[in-house]
Every structure is written in structure tokens, then in C-alpha cells.
Model the fold of this input.
Amino acid sequence: MLQNNFCACLLRIEWFELLHLFRNIIENQVTLKVDLTDVKDVNVDMDEKKLRVTAYGQGARGLNNYGFNLDLHSSIITEESNFKVINRQVDFTLWKKCPGWWPRLTSQPQKPSWLKIDFDKWTSEDLEDNEDDTRDICNDYPGVYDKLHKEEFGYRKEDLKKVYLIIYNLCQFVGFIYILTVMAIMYSRDGPACMKETYAAVGNAMKFVQLIQFLEVMHSIFGYTKSSTLASFLQVGGRAFILFTMIEAESRMQTKPVIFYLFLVWSTVEIFRYPYYITQLLKIEISFLTWLRYTIWMPLYPLGFLCEGIIILRNIPYFEETQRFTISLPNSWNFAFHFPSFLKIYLLIFCLPVMYFLMSRMNQTRYKKLGKSKLKKKYA
Done:
């Protein structure tokens, strides 16, 4: 049963799973739409409180006869009510005898099983009619939205995009928890001596979650998230460069203790970031988690950049020796590229601006989320 504080909704009748009837209740009229193509022989019988429709057209059973009966909630003016057959549907306009907001379309409180609700057309009676306004029933009336969904489907129907993002964030959280757990077990068992085995133990897991993180760039491109595409690409791409070019490509670097510290910093940041995203998707506010999400980066981001810088510096002599990724003349392209020189330029010119950009953006976001007044209270 619809609530009285709604003035417009769109309902769909499924007749043999394909014949659809839509209604949009407004103050003076009810508009209905029947999704049926190639319509012929439309027969409409209107009483003050009853609508009977039969038609021949293309529906769930192919070209066939279809029909429905509706016992209306209140009286209509049959002389002024009309219908129109267009290309892919039949549109009805039923004028109300007594203008006002109907609590429901049918006279019976129980909604017929074939009558389905389309939640994209909700507006509220207390709002002015403005076609440019975009209403969000889930945000505006969450209790009623949940109730209607449970009546309609037997469960709370979620947006597929939202479900996908929850699964993605959960998988990434589990991946980084696994990395931290393995590292913690190794360190508790062997102490600092385990650091040289870090990459051998969790390197594959780190490569996997890091590759999956490139989806976050796609999320921002396609509008799944509101994050900056540039910021996402710089962060994910920078990590991938360190992991695959600096560590995976040079076996001697894989046994250095700095790998342990780098993985520790990366994973610690992420085990707070992904749960925060999950709670936001579920509209759950955990103030301490929000504070951690926008505060833990302050010591960890500089440590992460420091570890990455150390890895690049330590790798320069190795790549000088092996000449890996270096292109020397002469060659068919008449092009030369000295990878160790590139690493020096990357370290001096690229790393510092990227670090400044990412940290400045995080600091701005932190002030937006926490606010100066909230920060003072927390540190008071």
C-alpha cells in the first residue's frame, strides 16, 4: 500500500510477463501506459471506478489478445478520460472526479501480484512540480523505499553497481588483510630475519590486488565513484611501477628489508580505506573509521614515498649493470633510452610533485569530511 505523502509514482502491470501497465498519479489525473506493440482492435470500457481494456498486439505470447481489469481507488470522469495508441504503447489519461492525491491506484488495499512498482518515478506531494528536479526515493524516503521493496520482491533490491562496488571493496580488504596477516605471522615467528622473505611469501598476493586496483581508475572514468581519475591513476600507476618494474624485474631487490616496510605501509592504508568505502555504500556512519580513513595517511604516505624512493635509488646501480629496459644505439628505430637516467629524472622531477599533489588532495578531502571544528574537538 502506498503512503499518502507521495503524489506521483509509476506502477507496472505484468500480464504474462510482458504486457506492462504504468501509472503516474498526479493531483488531477492518472496516466497509464500499456507496453504493447503493433496494437489493433483496442476495446476500452470505462466506468466511474473501473477500467477494462482488451487489445490485440505483440506481447509476451507474440501476436495475441491481451487484457486487464482495474478497480480504481476513486471515481473518474469517463467523458473526459481518453486513450491514444502510439508506436510502442497505449497511453491512457483518466481525469479524477475529485482532484486530490490517491493513496493507491486500486480500490483494494492488497496490491495484485502482477502489479509492480517502478521506483524511478517517485516524487513527493510536498514538493512543487518541477520536471528538472531529480528525486532520489532511496535517500528521500529510505524507510518507505525499503518497505515497498520488501513487499514487492521479498527482499531489499540493491542497485547492481552498488553490489559490485561492495564486492570489489570487500575483496580488496580481504587481500590486504591476508598480506598483513602473513607478514605478522612471519615476523612473530622469525623476527627481523623474515624481512628478506617478504616478497617470496606475499609478492604474488600483492601483485594480484595491485592489478585489481586499476579497476578504481575505471570506476572514476565511468562514474561509479566520484574520485578523481587523475589522482587514482597516479596512485595506482605509481605503485604498479614500483612493484612490477622496480621489484619484480630485479630479483636482488626482492630480498631487501625495505620491501617489508613498503608492503606494511601500503597494506595498513588500505585496510582502513576499503572498509570505509563499504560503510559509505551501506550508508553506515562509523565516526572512528572515518577519522582513521582521513588521518592514517598523514604518517603513512610520507613513509610510503620514502620507501619507494629508497627502492628506486637502490635499483639504479642494478639497472646500470644489467642494462635492463635500456635501449642502445644503433638500432632499427634510431632511438636510445637509458633507463637509469630515467629513474633519476623520475625521482627528482616526478615523485615529489606527485607526492605533493596526492597529499594536498587528501588534506583537502580530510577537511571536508572532518571539518576544522571536529578536528579541534578530537584533539582537545
